[in-house]
Amino acid sequence: TPGVSQVALRIRPMSAAELAEGARPIAHRLDDQVVVLRDPMEDPDDVLRASRSREKSYVFDVAFDSSATQETVYRATTRGLVAGVISGHNATIFAYGPTGCGKTYTMLGTDGEPGVCARSLGELFQAIEDANGDTEYKVSMSYLEIYNEMIRDLLNPSLGCLQLREDAGGTVRVAGITEISAISTEEVSRRKPMGHGVGLAKPPLPGAARLPQVLQLLAQGNRQRTQEPTAANRTSSRSHAVLQVTVRQRRRGTGLCRGHLFMIDLAGSERAAQTQNRGQRMKEGAHINRSLLALGNCIKALSHRASTKYINYRDSKLTRLLKDSLGGNSRTVMIAHISPASIAFEESRSTLAYAHCAKSIR
Q1: Measured by CB atoms within 10 angstroms of the end CB, which terminus of the chain is less buried, N or C?
Q2: What H or E segment, with its residue span, contains residue 258?
Q3: Sign of CA dihedral 11, 17, 19, 23
Q4: Torsion (CA) 349, 281, 292, 345 in degrees, nearest 10
């Protein structure tokens, strides 16, 4: 049903660096939905606090531990959204959590273990090819980053800083963004909208055959993302990466139907103390936290809509861009990520609390 959100929690394996520091696992999956986090600072021999549980349980729609495969995560969270997008609904998938907890791995994956983006596009292309012949489909894509509250086109970074514009119908768009034509059942052509398109190789190919070309462009775009080393991660992504897929369908005798699929790899949600950032990195962190706070406030407002008359999407570029994809006829999936290590306790606790709040969106 559109509007209903799903929140998943994924625990990554312990890293070599964490093991070298002597960290021990304090987060584990109890069953398909429950994750338990233990406070490593509480003394088990403290008689006065013995009655207080050192463990806190969090319930999600689905929980994954480090043994979960990319295919398992995709099937449980995202696979069911593709049919809705083809029939004209909007869908949004977020990867949320601190730096180094596996967000980019879940979304993009590797050549051997593709992530949510590749699997969604493969499923989408296949569904369109399998559809009956009286419907024409066009799929286009754009890929951008929001860095320090500025929007950059990852497929054509030379365009500089782009602006958000709201059209007469109230839809928010990025002016001048590059769109690539990923598949068209009417005609597969090299398309350059507004003079800035990125053409795909000829000759025309069916969607399944074109998938590697599209993924190559995504990988190329991801390499353009703003990354800087921090104490939390040597290649920390300092921006939110937003992949937007638009499916247009026209049946004979009916009008145009349009569905949007947003796939978003959010910047790390960790505190400044965790990254030991100063100067420019500290400013970046403030912008990251501002947009994540704005997203959290929208999620909170949407989850208590009966008592909230106004939802403030204008607090950040991220929430403005996602205005139509958080509520209304949209389905929202958040995949939150944590490390199981004792040294990551504070980050894990705040991530679990944030994701738990997101579970209330209706």
Answers
A1: N
A2: strand 256-265
A3: negative
A4: 0
> Could you tell me where the DSSP H helices lie in the chain?
16-20, 70-77, 81-86, 103-107, 116-130, 207-223, 272-275, 279-303, 317-321, 323-326, 345-358
* pLDDT tens track, the chain, 362 positions: 445 579 999 999 999 999 999 999 999 999 999 999 999 886 666 656 555 568 899 999 999 999 999 999 999 999 999 999 998 889 999 999 998 999 999 999 998 999 999 999 999 999 988 887 788 899 999 999 998 889 999 999 999 999 999 888 888 899 999 999 887 665 433 333 433 444 444 434 455 667 888 888 888 888 888 765 544 444 456 789 999 999 999 887 778 889 999 999 998 887 544 444 455 556 666 777 788 889 888 887 877 655 666 788 989 999 999 887 776 668 889 999 999 999 999 999 999 998 988 877 66
**Rounded-to-10 torsion of CA 36, 42, 43, 49:** -90
Whether residue 229 has a cis bond before it, omega within 30° of 0: no
Strand partners, 109: 114
pTM for the whole thing?
0.85
194 Cβ contact list (under 8 Å, min separation 6): 176
Q: 106 phi and psi, to 5 degrees?
A: -65, -40
Residue with tokens 């937007």: 244
**The domain defined by 3-187+206-223+237-305+318-359 carries CATH number 3.10.20.30:** no
Measured distance CA(70)–CA(85) in Å, rounded: 21
Binding-site positions for ATP: 97-104
Tell me the C-alpha distance between 295 and 282, whole Å: 20
- Token representation of residue 254: 């009916």
Q: Which residues of 60-80 are buried (b: 16+ CB within 10 A; e: fewer)?
A: bbbbbbeebebeebbebbbee
CA distance 100 to 198: 31
Binding residues: 97-104
Which of the 8 DSSP states describes residue 179?
A: -
Nearest Cα to 86, choosing from 132, 143, 142, 118? 132
